[in-house]
Please model this.
Amino acid sequence: MTGSAAAKTWALDSLDAARRRTLALTDHLGDDELLARHSPLMSPLVWDLAHVGNQEEIWIVRRVGGRPAMRPDLDGLYDAFEHSRADRVGLPLLRPAEAREYLAAVRARTVDVLTGIELTDEAVLRGAFAFNMTAQHEHQHGETMLVTLQCREGPAVLSAPIPAPAETGTPLGEVLVEGGPFLMGADGDALDRALDNERPAHRVDVPAFWIDAAPVTCADFQRFIAAGGYEDPSWWTGAGWEHRIDAALEAPLFWRREGDLWTRRRFGRVEPVPGDEPVMHVCWYEADAYARWAGRRLPTEAEWEKAAAWDAAVGRAQPYPWGLEEPDRSRANLGQVFLEPTPAGSYPAGVSPCGAGQMIGDVWEWTATDFGAYPGFRPLLSREYSTPFFDGRYKVLRGGSFATHPHAARATFRNWDLPVRRQIFAGFRTARDAD
Model:
């Protein structure tokens, strides 16, 4: 199989995987559930359902394929910047059956474009990049829809296996990352999949530092709560303390104290908080306050990537903590196999060269860094994908979560959100300067 044929096959497989997950998350729900606003922070599920089709039509059918618009009347309805999530429930959205028909019609034309197009060295066509980006965008909305289902009130509509206890032999504590330069960001063959904000690769000199070998656990965070961490403004930034008061933060989202026991609501089920799992549903301000209380700090984005990807033995950063191989179930908790993080210390086969574990999957990890453009950045396929968020208001998250599809999980992938957001599947690990 030629390189072009292999790239097309991989892109088609990724598009198919994204669509299967989109439909699996929505086909079992009735129209009332799909049309409802389950949280003012989230869109109605039917909006996400049609939005991924509209973006696919704009990006692939129109821009890459040069075909006439199929439904230009939908562009405004499904423009993420034109209507807030809270307001989308009142829009004249496609009904679920109409949305599914639209998705299928767009996908048929996408496959036609992919089949007939010549892949060149142009950035949006190299390695079928535009099609890979479209698939990743749909995968990202698959995770967004899962967040919506977590926010949903009512009995459970999803189920999954319970993670096994962590395998023995994976050390916790902290690990040292040696100082020195490394190439941060995507380059080489990774450019076939890397989104615009992951580019260009650039040299960054990072002083030596220590970083947690695993994400901060629920038991760790309970100690912060018990020590009065939410009542002491000295651990919080000014903006963080103001938000803590305004939002009445007392514990991670979905947690509740029942006597001496902490419980959580997880996809419609109430259960004891598992102490050995990475803490989740905390905002950046909570993560930062915990780190200060612990005498540490959040890692910078560059520190996080170096800890995840730098391999001194080969003298370069690798696409995954374990090397070149694609993620699988032996290395990371990805792809909604479980509907929760696995215990700290899991996946010894996925540990990075410096000894940091679970850097891919389980929970997104807040970093200290504001989301911004790398030196030499230029938008690809859509200026609206990254550029509007380079305004200093968003914090970078890294690593993916249990809900992230493997095709959208790599050491260079950059996620971002406002520092007040808690409904996302986000946790953190801490760091400190080397002595």
